């Protein structure tokens, strides 16, 4: 039994460490980095269905690995994990709104965590029994890209913890918050 547990833990850690690319944290959080492919839109809500070879040509290698091959980024490597910025998190693949920053919380798991998606249609839920675990995978409701998993150990009001790979997130600061910040900076300087 201990042998089986050790193998399961080792496989989980190996899966977590497969994505070894370093992140440029300043670029990842800059919403001016607009996606340069035809399916990315923050206003189009139509479903996106492409063949895997089309996705592979369109997406950066790390994003393709996590979003389309159900990979996992290393824990504590996402700039979004510790971010306190106010705004909206979008799917980095298609631009679909996923989470508001006011539903983000510090879970200590090493990945950005949220307790509630923007809407029920934002997320698709699938059973995931890989790596000897029983989990619920979450995918983008628009393009079906792998986002992460949801667990039932989150805070109120939902009791859920959406544990999301930061690589598949794009962020836009709230315009109102940004304006207030800019106004404060002008008064200080």
Q: Largest sheet at a glance?
A: 6 strands, antiparallel
Pattern of helices and strands: HHHHEEEEEEEEEH
Oligomer: single chain
Globally, the shape reads globular
CATH H-level name... which superfamily?
Peptide methionine sulfoxide reductase
User: Do you know the CATH architecture?
Assistant: Beta Complex
DSSP strand (E) fraction? 15-25%
Structural class determined from secondary elements: alpha+beta
Q: Using the coordinates shown, work out and report the CATH topology.
A: Metal Binding Protein, Guanine Nucleotide Exchange Factor, Chain A
Distance between the termini: 64 Å
Return Rg in Å. 17 Å
How many discrete structural domains? 1
CATH class placement: Mainly Beta
What is the spatial order of strands in the main beta sheet?
3-4-8-7-6-5
Would you identify the regions where 5 or more consecutive residues have pLDDT less than 50?
1-34
What level of helicity do the residues show? 25-40%
């Amino acid at each position: 039994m201990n042998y089986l547990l050790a193998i399961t833990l080792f496989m989980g850690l190996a899966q977590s460490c497969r994505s070894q690319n370093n992140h440029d944290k300043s670029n990842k959080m800059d919403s001016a980095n607009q996606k340069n492919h035809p399916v990315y839109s923050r206003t189009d809500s139509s479903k996106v269905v492409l063949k895997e070879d089309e996705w592979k040509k369109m997406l950066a290698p790390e994003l393709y690995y996590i979003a389309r091959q159900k990979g996992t980024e290393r824990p504590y490597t996402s700039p979004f994990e510790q971010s306190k910025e106010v705004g909206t998190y979008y799917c980095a693949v298609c631009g679909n709104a996923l989470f508001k920053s006011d539903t983000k919380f510090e879970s200590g798991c090493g990945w950005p965590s949220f307790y509630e998606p923007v809407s029920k249609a934002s997320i698709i839920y699938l059973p995931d029994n890989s790596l000897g675990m029983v989990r619920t995978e979450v995918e983008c409701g628009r393009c079906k890209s792998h986002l992460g998993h949801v667990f039932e150990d989150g805070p109120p009001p939902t009791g859920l913890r959406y544990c999301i790979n930061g690589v598949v997130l794009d962020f836009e600061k709230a315009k109102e918050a940004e304006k207030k910040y800019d106004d404060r900076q002008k008064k200080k300087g």
